[in-house]
Write a structure and sequence with these properties.
By secondary structure, the protein is an alpha+beta fold. The chain contains 2 helices and 15 strands. The chain has an 8-stranded mixed sheet with strand order 5-4-8-2-1-11-14-13, with no helix packed on it. Strands 6-7-3-10 form a 4-stranded antiparallel sheet, with no helix packed on it.
Length: 233
Amino acid sequence: MNRRYAPLLLAVAIVSAARAEPPALDSVVVDARVAEDGSASVDARYYLEPAGAHELELKSLTFEGRRAANVRAFVGESEVSFRARQTAAGNLDGVVPLPAATERLRLRLTYEVLPLPSAPRDPAVVALPMFVPTWPSREALPRTFTATVALPAGTVAYTGFPSDFKLVRSIDRTSDANVYSFSLPVMPALLRLGTAHGSAPLLTLERGVDLATLSLLGILGVLGWRRLREQLG
């Protein structure tokens, strides 16, 4: 090979490598509806940048006796297989085939969240495992992950994980359900809400911790002020 062309070929190789980006997750939109017994139906839409990948692996957790079940997968408008794999820990993972494409595409998962047979049904705790792709997010933007959770009529949420959630108006004007929204720069493995009928309890564990912390800071402040006065005179 003529040495004069070596720098040119090296430059072409560098540019080609820079353009060969790995597959990535663009964003996720989740809608969930919770029943009176704490079970739920989940509709999750993943917007993917496959970069030629032929499949996507997704992982989920079993948390507080809740598990994902009855999963269906759709790429665009076509239903595809969800190859489920039960892990040693009892979690449900899965692999979804993808078409040979490089452009952005949409994957939709629908599934149920059900209590394990041995788990007590506690409708006051809503725990929703998410199917998290193994691909990284392209960018950690404030709304990379958005979700809405509709609770049964007359039920309110007073605590949650992630903790940054808010009450929004239901798009179903005939429903009395309270709907809560989440927005995060990354996809969580779980959405969790502590709920109550009617109105939220005045004292929760989180509020108790906050009050105890404030009380301790107040006591330390008073003791510090007294000590300072004694030293001054």
